[in-house]
Amino acid sequence: xxxxxxxxxxxxxxxxxxxxxxxxxxxxxxxxxxxxxxxxxxxxxxxxxxxxxxxxxxxxxxxxxxxxxxxxxxxxxxxxxxxxxxxxxxxxxxxxxxxxxxxxxxxxxxxxxxxxxxxxxxxxxxxxxxxxxxxxxxxxxxxxxxxxxxxxxxxxxxxxxxxxxxxxxxxxxxxxxxxxxxxxxxxxxxxxxxxxxxxxxxxxxxxxxxxxxxxxxxxxxxxxxxxxxxxxxxxxxxxxxxxxxxxxxxxxxxxx
Length: 256
Ligand SMILES: Nc1ncnc2c1ncn2[C@@H]1O[C@H](COP(=O)(O)OP(=O)(O)OP(=O)(O)O)[C@@H](O)[C@H]1O
Ligand SMILES: [Mg+2]
Hints:
An eight-stranded mixed sheet has the order 3-4-2-5-1-6-7-8, sandwiched between helices. Helix 1 (16-29) packs across helix 12. It has helices at residues 16-29, 44-48, 60-65, 70-73, 91-100, 107-111, 132-140, 158-171, 191-204, 217-221, 229-232, 237-255, and strands at 3-7, 34-38, 75-76, 82-85, 121-125, 143-149, 178-186, 208-214. It is globular and about 50 Å long. It has a single domain (3-255), classed as Rossmann fold (3-Layer(aba) Sandwich). The protein starts with a strand and ends with a helix. Strand 3 (75-76) and strand 4 (82-85) form a beta hairpin. The protein is an alpha/beta fold and 256 residues long. Bound molecules: adenosine-5'-triphosphate and magnesium ion. Magnesium ion is lined by residues 16-17, 40, 44, 125.
């Protein structure tokens, strides 16, 4: 079975891309075959694995709109078992085109039909909006991972996200579920963090990952070198945290 996770939260800057890139790299380090799909026109996940987004001849746009096979578009990254379907600003074109198309929400899922068996994990980095690109990710996925910064406004907007997930479950994708809520930029010394964290546990129970991702400067620096945290500083607390997250996810999946 292939685990396909949409990494999503319509709030900006909560660590979606950092999580997509480094969880993908951690899973590939653990010898799983991983595909990272960049569904954000910002192209940050592509840049985060060292892909120069302005020089791309083929992107995920070609998979979505021009019937290119994913294996003709994806690129190998580091570690070797990691493949990436990159994106850049051109992807906004797909957002518009898919909105007009019949069954425009299912295009990514259909495009992955043959490719999915080549991977153990497919992670989809979503843009910070509940738009057609996010709907495609939610329709293609069998699980949702929600990175959250434990701040006062964090819970606001969560209802909208869960509403969208339920809507997609009810119509396009009955297999979908919220697999986990990930606490990012985590500071256990802050009272507010602890309060919001408790609220999350009350609401999501054991779907809140036990692993937390600390605020770690090395995680913020790595993308400016086009490197994952494992290439940039594998001893850092950020690297340890993403390895722990991968471990937690793998153990959970082995149990079910
Ligand atoms: N654990 C962390 N410690 C320190 N900095 C982090 C951490 N996680 C993310 N950052 C930094 O915070 C910023 C936002 O992170 P990221 O790009 O992953 O969020 P995002 O949710 O993908 O944002 P967007 O909504 O724009 O797509 C980036 O500059 C990133 O390097
Ligand atoms: Mg992002």
